[in-house]
Design a protein that fits this description.
The chain is α/β, with parallel strands linked by helices. It has 15 helices and 16 strands. The structure holds pyridoxal-5'-phosphate.
Length: 435
């Protein structure tokens, strides 16, 4: 199909996400033909290094042969069946393996299809737990300043990003926010963490009676602009939540599955949340799948002869076997290829190569956690983000800055040459965008 034909038909029929559609009068869509490994190819054969893992979902490259084979085999066996009243091998195996990855601390997995649905599930589970245990007044939530937990109405209630929330404010029961531990706010990351923990302590000392849960993005608040913080905050938040009988919900939708250097980000603080939300990388970036892992304490509060004490929540595609098969194949790659270990070398190389960018005159706060790198650009140009995106494409790299924050979240398969390419082309795109 000719390039321009696909573009006009897309604009005439597809409502693209997170987009002011009128912008496409001047900024052309990119019509993709295929993906392979780190690369996306458009219909005219141009290629782009997928430096942001297609919105943070892809872990092992596009068209990964091992995940392809697993999904195909599952497709020929059982493509889908309802999970109420039925079960199947992929969903059982995935639940067992996810639980094992939490050291068996979180014993049951409840499935949804997107990150936002996992957040809805976790919020409902937490409030319903308190209702089942005789505390129906504990039905509010607290989140961190700048938090992002998705864009359905319940998820927006704990999302503190005006751009996404303001238009829907009348539809949303907005939660209170407490200070975040972003390490850029203080001379030391530890100090920022302690300061934010004190703020949480003060807040819960006053409001814990009405609060069901604190929800956090462990170690990196991604959507607000890759705000990174010290694990000490999570240790303290865990202790404060315990003290005030408030659940800790860890939203590892973006940071789970090795993104911060450990399999789950919470591991770096040595803590386990009461509810753990997973999505994005869970299926290797193949199929929509999310899960909420719950503590046995929460699970047991629903286990009863009374139907309405159960968790009567469902999505049609809950536990989809194809998505579970992709997730299992992805977990196999983690263990077989010792991915967490080899990523340490990848991260060290990319960080070392990135030195010229980190010290660039227009670059501020170059930072890095595991397989996420970010820096802020000193510019007054409100169109900087759009210009950098376009300049990135001209230089064969897919970058999608958040405001003036440029970041990399590449798939876990780049070698030294790929890393050098990424740094060089990002540098060229930066110069072009600033020119
Ligand atoms: C992306 C994201 C979500 C929402 O996931 P969707 O699949 O886009 O609904 C929630 N929380 C965090 C931290 C995310 O990065």
């Amino acid at each position: 199909m000719p390039h321009s034909d696909l573009l006009s038909r897309s604009l005439a029929s597809v409502w693209h996400p997170c987009t002011q559609m009128k912008q496409h009068e001047t900024l052309p869509l990119v019509p993709l033909a295929r993906g392979e490994g780190l690369w996306l190819y458009d219909t005219e054969g141009r290629r782009f290094f997928d430096a942001i893992s297609s919105w943070w979902v892809n872990l092992f490259g596009h068209a990964n042969p091992r995940i392809n084979a697993a999904v195909l085999a599952q497709m020929n066996t059982l493509e889908h069946a309802m999970l109420a009243g039925f079960t199947h091998r992929p969903v059982v195996e995935l639940s067992e393996r996810l639980s094992a990855l939490t050291g068996s601390a979180l014993g049951h997995a409840f499935y949804g299809s997107d990150g936002a649905s996992a957040i809805e599930i976790a919020l409902k589970m937490s409030a319903h737990y308190w209702r089942n245990t005789g505390h129906p007044e504990k039905n509010r939530f607290v989140c961190l300043a700048g938090s992002y937990h998705g864009e359905t109405a319940g998820a927006l209630s704990v999302t503190d990003i005006a751009l996404f929330r303001d238009a829907y404010a009348p539809l949303v029961r907005v939660s209170d926010t407490v200070a975040n531990p972003d390490s850029r706010q203080s001379a030391s990351a530890l100090h920022a963490a302690e300061h934010a923990a004190d703020a949480l302590h003060g807040y819960l000392a006053e409001h814990a009676n009405s609060i069901a849960a604190l929800i956090v993005e462990p170690l990196v608040q991604c959507a607000t602009g890759m705000a990174m913080y010290d694990p000490e905050y999570l240790r303290r938040a865990r202790a404060i939540c315990d003290r005030y009988h408030v659940h800790l919900i860890a939203d590892e939708i973006a940071v789970g599955f090795g993104r911060t250097g450990s399999f789950f980000a919470c591991e770096q603080a040595g803590i386990v949340p009461d509810l753990l939300c997973l999505s994005k990388g869970i299926s290797g970036g193949y199929l929509p799948l999310s899960a909420v892992l719950s503590s046995d304490e929460i699970y047991s509060a629903f286990y009863d002869d009374e139907k309405t004490r159960g968790f009567l929540h469902s999505h049609s595609y809950t536990g989809n076997p194809l998505a579970c098969a992709a997730a299992l194949a992805s977990l196999d790659i983690f263990s077989h290829d010792k991915v967490i270990e080899t990523n340490k070398n990848r991260a060290a190389t990319l960080t070392w190569l990135a030195e010229p960018l980190a010290t660039h005159a227009a670059v501020r706060s170059f930072r890095h956690t595991g397989m996420i790198w970010a820096f802020d650009v000193e510019t007054e140009d409100p169109a900087f983000g759009r210009k950098l995106f376009a300049a990135g494409l001209d230089n064969e790299v897919l970058l999608r800055p958040i405001g003036k924050t440029v970041y990399w979240m590449p798939p876990y398969l780049f070698d030294d040459r790929d890393a050098a390419f990424l740094v060089e082309r990002t540098g060229l795109a930066l110069e072009a965008a600033l020119a």
